[in-house]
Automatic annotation (TrEMBL):
<keyword id="KW-0479">Metal-binding</keyword>
<dbReference type="InterPro" id="IPR024185">
    <property type="entry name" value="FTHF_cligase-like_sf"/>
</dbReference>
<dbReference type="InterPro" id="IPR037171">
    <property type="entry name" value="NagB/RpiA_transferase-like"/>
</dbReference>
<keyword id="KW-0813">Transport</keyword>
<keyword id="KW-0004">4Fe-4S</keyword>
<keyword id="KW-0677">Repeat</keyword>
<dbReference type="InterPro" id="IPR009051">
    <property type="entry name" value="Helical_ferredxn"/>
</dbReference>
<protein>
    <submittedName>
        <fullName>LutB/LldF family L-lactate oxidation iron-sulfur protein</fullName>
    </submittedName>
</protein>
<keyword id="KW-0408">Iron</keyword>
<dbReference type="InterPro" id="IPR017900">
    <property type="entry name" value="4Fe4S_Fe_S_CS"/>
</dbReference>
<feature type="domain" description="4Fe-4S ferredoxin-type">
    <location>
        <begin position="310"/>
        <end position="378"/>
    </location>
</feature>
<dbReference type="Pfam" id="PF02589">
    <property type="entry name" value="LUD_dom"/>
</dbReference>
<keyword id="KW-0411">Iron-sulfur</keyword>
<keyword id="KW-0249">Electron transport</keyword>
<dbReference type="InterPro" id="IPR017896">
    <property type="entry name" value="4Fe4S_Fe-S-bd"/>
</dbReference>
<feature type="domain" description="LUD">
    <location>
        <begin position="68"/>
        <end position="296"/>
    </location>
</feature>
<dbReference type="InterPro" id="IPR004452">
    <property type="entry name" value="LutB/LldF"/>
</dbReference>
Length: 476
């Protein structure tokens, strides 16, 4: 899919002016925050579990080649096939080849954010194969021709009335007098429409929350059961995953599952947590005749051994974006690619380049909430600063920004001049704004005053006030 990340500022302005989006964001984000807070409060060992989860991921990344090979060996032992894909193009071609060999006309899909990165849906459609999203949010997004705006709640940006309008537009045989009173009514309608799709599908495609090296299993978590139907009813199951999804053992996977649902939706566990290992065995009541795992690198191996390796710990819970004030204001589509929010601000430049995605690591208040809630303790603000450093080193920022930073750096390296300039600046602004209270516009501060007033400074500089209080304390 094409990235619009370079247009983040323009995207953000449109998002903030979209009344429907702002309503949806205001309604949805509070629920995620409260549920997570309750789930964490009810588990005294949650902080210890975060440390365990971080250590599991760090160990795996340090030995990634070994665990990937072990995983592939056990998948094949269970009758499955592993396909190693360096790029999204290779992954698309691999999925298409598997579907063609199965003579597939319809493919059902369980929610998979990695399939968005691969661009699977459009590729299958171009070759005469119909992909059908079966997650309720993804189904609505597909009807609208959009991409997800959130990695676990794809239709986060929509209101209930939007959902109903989309159903009526797409399902032309709906009774016009039928009223959708709540989300459950929409879910029932979707299930009715999708039932035949599940039964008719030749191939089912799911993502994978974890890949277990010890057993060759893939793990998916859902709350609707669509993932199970997608991978057990068709003759062929394809699991899509990026290489960092592997974990060493079943015990490691269960440790990570304990922090995943709590961080994502505030549940102890998702309604469905499904482990799939290989093809249908003799005596099994269901399961696929073919099991394929498509492993995507797409730039991730280049992150190993760099300052960005910690980003590969991510387990896609979306806690960072649920708590991010920038995401909470702009929504996910403003980020212009698959991965929004703080995790996207670090991962997207890693995958498509900082030249394309340089605005994203700058779209942060650095409040630190993302790091404080991350279940695997990824230092997201630090990683965003590293991308800002890369952007500066490569002269990708506007000349005005670079000049401003250069002027600030000159003073910062000379403490005496810095303090003198600060006193002069604070005093001048205080005098100029003494009758205003706030500046609505100010030369060289348009980036601030365009969106908000700049309060008139009151009193002295912080350093002068601090020194005064220190002296007062010493004299007691």
């Amino acid at each position: 899919m094409n990235s619009t990340s370079p247009q983040f500022k323009e995207n953000a302005r449109k998002a903030m002016a979209d009344a429907g989006l702002q309503k949806a964001l205001g309604t949805a984000k509070g629920a995620f925050l409260q549920r997570r807070a309750n789930a964490v409060a009810n588990l005294p060992e949650f902080e210890q579990l975060r440390n365990t989860a971080r250590d599991i991921k760090n160990h795996t990344l340090a030995n990634l080649d070994f665990y990937l090979e072990k995983f592939a060996e056990n998948v094949e032992r269970a009758g499955g096939h592993v396909h190693w894909c360096s790029t999204a193009e290779e992954a698309r071609a691999t999925v298409l080849e598997i579907c063609r060999k199965a003579n597939a006309k319809t493919v059902t899909k369980g929610k998979s954010i990695i399939s968005e990165e691969m661009g699977i849906n459009h590729h299958l459609e171009e070759h005469g194969i119909t992909p059908v999203e079966t997650d309720l949010g993804e189904y609505i997004i597909q009807l609208r021709g959009e991409i997800p705006s959130h990695i676990i709640a794809p239709a986060f940006h929509l209101n209930r009335e939007d959902w109903e309008a989309d159903f009526r537009r797409a399902h032309t045989d709906l009774d016009p007098d039928r009223v959708f009173h709540e989300r459950r009514d929409i879910l029932t309608e979707a299930r009715t429409r999708l039932r035949q799709k599940f039964l008719a599908a030749d191939v089912g495609i799911t993502g994978a929350n974890f890949l277990i090296a010890e057993t060759g299993s893939s793990v998916i978590v859902t709350n609707e059961g669509n993932g199970d139907l997608t991978q057990t009813l068709p003759r062929v199951h394809i699991a899509l995953a990026s290489i960092e999804k592997v974990v060493p053992t079943l015990e490691d996977a269960t440790s990570l599952l304990r922090v995943l649902a709590r961080s994502a939706t505030g549940q102890d566990f998702s309604v469905y947590t499904t482990f799939s290992t290989g093809v249908r065995r003799k005596g099994d009541l269901d399961g696929p005749e073919e099991y394929h795992v498509v492993l995507l690198d797409n730039g991730r191996s280049n992150m190993i051994g760099t300052e960005f390796q910690e980003m590969l710990r991510c387990i896609r819970c979306a806690a960072c974006m649920n708590h991010c004030p920038v995401y909470g204001t702009t929504g996910g589509h403003a980020y212009g690619w698959v991965y929004p929010g703080p995790m996207g601000s670090v991962l997207t430049p890693s995958l498509i380049g900082v030249k394309e995605a340089g605005h994203l690591p700058n779209a942060s208040t650095f409040c630190g909430r993302c790091e404080s809630v991350c279940p695997v303790k990824i230092p997201l603000p630090k990683l965003m600063r590293h991308w800002r450093e890369r952007e500066f080193e490569r002269h990708l920022q506007p000349s005005g920004v670079r000049t401003g930073l250069g002027v600030w750096a000159w003073f910062a390296k000379r403490p005496g001049m810095y303090r003198l300039a600060s006193r002069w600046g604070i005093g001048a602004l205080g005098w100029l704004g003494r009758k205003k209270g706030a500046f609505r516009s100010l030369p060289l501060a348009g980036g601030w005053t365009e969106g908000r007033d700049l309060p008139v400074p009151q009193g002295r500089t912080f350093m002068d006030e601090y020194a005064k209080r220190q002296r007062a304390g010493a004299g007691r």
